[in-house]
């Protein structure tokens, strides 16, 4: 929900149609009046004395229990507001936002007119919150609460209600909720002209659902505890009826839900004495509505009474962070492939002394590869807090065994997902039985008249774009996000090798570069490229890397999991011709559900990447000497030891 929508909301609040404002007041009051009239016409209302006797029969311990259940309910509502603040990125997430949310809900649920009263209360208690943003928070919490409540009502109608005729309604509500979840994942953003609406992430929706279930269940338990002992209504019987009656009350927006709540409960529990149910509801309104409203009124009149409770406390794990744009990625870094953030919308994020390449998606915050600089010790706690502030899951994607082992020691879950094909250009030779297939492919390319040239200066971008277009026409949409796509500014920062035949370009390959390694990014060949063209491109790149004293060249990774053989046979076979060293790569996340969500999100983005945007000109922050081959061998040996350690622990 972007700034544009916020500004328009602000304008609509100031210049709204007077007739619509009047209807917001008239409709809730009309719903309350109509329900109370209909209720009075159906049953004989108990006298005040009868009501008082029924309320007096409730044991004192039940009143205490109802008070405790009310506290649990409002505690969960405060957590609910925290999720909303994180979704809207107000910067006010924390205890101050949760307490303000609890007070705002206590006030608005009693006086009714939820959007108006809730927005006013939040704005009053959080001075840094604009009226438009307060309205957004109120609308967001209201709509998502209705969705969660609809799911509970659907389950109640299907599982507990004796009315078979309404089973279809329960199924419809559940299907609608599931469709909402699917929509939030497949289409995380919806564009309406100039307004972009962002769905809550699955991580946020799971949190919202959890807190809503706790809230509604605790409130229903408070009501059950305050029913007279001889009502004969069990908790299992009351809760489904309460869920449905509450749904009617929320939709009516009547003050305190008065009228729809009573009518709904008495109708759904028609086999029981309505007088006893009404007495329980009155007791419930005293404990769950009146007392919280009294407290909220005091704090709304004198917000200063809250003192430090509303002050923003900085998060220690995020106390020293810095955002840097992707085009400032340093030339001196362990993994050249991190330059993919120049295209996929990622950025550089520094947590104290540790810098990583970070990709924020609607569902996740993905740290790509190993840290660019600094230790990994404090990275894991910082990533958890950073992603939590976005209502997102987090993971380390395609990290080395060393970082994966550190993640496991931090109680993260790890999974081997890929193997990277690595070559040492300074030592590479074509001899030996392991490279027999490579020698045959290179001979085929030579016989076909293939010539590979290093485009060291100004590459022929128009011709390369034509090759890429032909490749996409033959193979379909190029994969993206964690893999590069052709774009002029992006590719000019890479090392490019071009295959020529009869003075025409028939293919090319590009490599990410850093002071320590090259890594294959794009390889494009036309349909008429002779056999061995790709091998000739790689062979030329190995020679060029050796001439520049590059000790490590990566042919990039291939999937390495249970089903990998079904999806990458050709890719693995091509890279195996060079007899590379296969280095394991892992994904690591704080929990298995987060790991699964990150994988699903990455799969979605790889196969459905966003449209390619022009990359900014690369301005690396440093240019340093290449590390020696001896240092790379040492790093490789450490990776082997870490991989062995992970395997033993598994």
UniProtKB/TrEMBL annotation:
Pfam families: LPG_synthase_C
InterPro entries listed in its UniProt record: Acyl_CoA_acyltransferase, GNAT_dom, LPG_synthase_C, PG_lysyltransferase
Species whose genome carries this gene: Epibacterium ulvae
PANTHER family: PHOSPHATIDYLGLYCEROL LYSYLTRANSFERASE
Protein name (record): Phosphatidylglycerol lysyltransferase
Record's keyword terms, sorted: Cell membrane, Membrane, Transferase, Transmembrane, Transmembrane helix
GO terms under cellular component: plasma membrane
Example of a GO biological process term: phospholipid homeostasis
């Amino acid at each position: 929900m972007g700034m544009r929508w916020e500004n328009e909301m602000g304008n609509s609040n100031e210049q709204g149609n007077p007739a619509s404002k009047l209807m917001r007041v008239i409709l809730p009051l009309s719903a309350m009046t109509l329900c109370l009239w209909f209720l009075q016409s159906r049953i004989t209302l108990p006298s005040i004395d009868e009501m008082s006797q029924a309320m007096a029969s409730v044991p004192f311990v039940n009143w205490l229990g109802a008070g405790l259940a009310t506290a649990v309910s409002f505690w969960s509502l405060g957590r609910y507001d925290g999720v909303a603040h994180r979704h809207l990125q107000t910067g006010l997430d924390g205890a101050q936002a949760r307490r303000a949310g609890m007070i705002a809900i206590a006030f608005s649920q009693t006086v009714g007119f939820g959007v108006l009263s809730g927005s006013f209360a939040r704005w009053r208690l959080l001075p840094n919150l604009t009226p438009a943003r307060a309205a957004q928070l109120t609308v967001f919490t209201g709509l998502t609460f209705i969705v969660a409540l609809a799911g509970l009502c659907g389950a109640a109608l299907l599982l507990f209600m004796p009315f078979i005729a309404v089973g279809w309604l329960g199924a419809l509500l559940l299907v609608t909720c599931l469709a909402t979840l699917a929509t939030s994942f497949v289409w995380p953003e919806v564009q309406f002209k100039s307004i972009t609406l962002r769905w809550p992430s699955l991580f946020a929706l799971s949190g919202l659902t959890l807190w809503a279930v706790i809230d509604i269940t605790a409130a229903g338990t408070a009501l059950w505890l305050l029913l007279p002992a001889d009502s004969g209504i069990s908790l299992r019987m009351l809760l489904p009826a309460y869920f449905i009656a509450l749904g009617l009350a929320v939709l009516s927006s009547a003050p305190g839900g008065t009228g729809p709540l009573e009518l709904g409960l008495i109708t759904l529990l028609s086999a029981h004495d309505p007088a006893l149910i009404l007495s329980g509801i009155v007791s419930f309104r005293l404990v769950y509505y009146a007392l919280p409203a009294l407290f909220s009124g005091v704090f709304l009149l004198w917000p200063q009474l809250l003192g430090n409770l509303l002050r923003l406390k900085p998060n220690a794990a995020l106390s020293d962070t810095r955002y840097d744009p992707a085009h400032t990625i340093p030339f001196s870094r362990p993994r050249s492939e991190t330059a993919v953030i120049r295209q996929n919308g990622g950025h550089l994020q520094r947590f104290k002394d540790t810098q990583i390449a970070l990709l924020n998606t609607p569902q996740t915050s993905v740290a790509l590869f190993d840290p660019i600089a600094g230790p990994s010790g404090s990275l894991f706690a910082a990533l958890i807090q950073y992603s939590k502030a976005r209502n997102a899951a987090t993971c380390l994607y395609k990290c080395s065994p060393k970082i994966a082992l550190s993640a496991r020691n931090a109680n993260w879950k790890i999974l081997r997902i890929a193997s990277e094909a690595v070559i040492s250009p300074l030592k590479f030779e074509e001899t030996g039985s392991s490279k027999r297939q490579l020698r045959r492919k290179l001979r085929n390319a030579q016989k076909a008249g293939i010539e590979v040239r290093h485009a060291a200066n100004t590459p022929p971008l128009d011709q390369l774009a034509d090759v890429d277009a032909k490749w996409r026409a033959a193979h379909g949409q190029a994969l993206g996000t964690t893999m590069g796509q052709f774009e002029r500014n992006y590719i000019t920062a890479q090392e490019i090798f071009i295959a020529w035949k009869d003075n025409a370009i028939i293919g090319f390959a590009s490599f990410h570069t850093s002071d320590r390694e090259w890594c294959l990014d794009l390889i494009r060949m036309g349909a008429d490229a002779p056999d061995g063209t790709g091998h000739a491109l790689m062979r030329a790149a190995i020679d060029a890397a050796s001439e520049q004293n590059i000790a490590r060249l990566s042919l990039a990774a291939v999937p390495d999991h249970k089903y990998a053989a079904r999806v990458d046979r050709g890719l693995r076979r091509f890279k195996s011709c060079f007899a590379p060293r296969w280095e394991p790569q892992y994904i690591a996340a704080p929990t298995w559900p987060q790991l699964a969500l990150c994988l699903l999100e990455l799969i979605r983005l790889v196969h459905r990447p966003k449209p390619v945007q022009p990359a900014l000109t690369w301005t690396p922050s440093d240019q340093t000497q290449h590390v020696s081959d001896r240092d790379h061998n040492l790093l490789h040996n450490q990776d082997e030891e870490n991989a062995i350690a992970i395997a033993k622990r598994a």
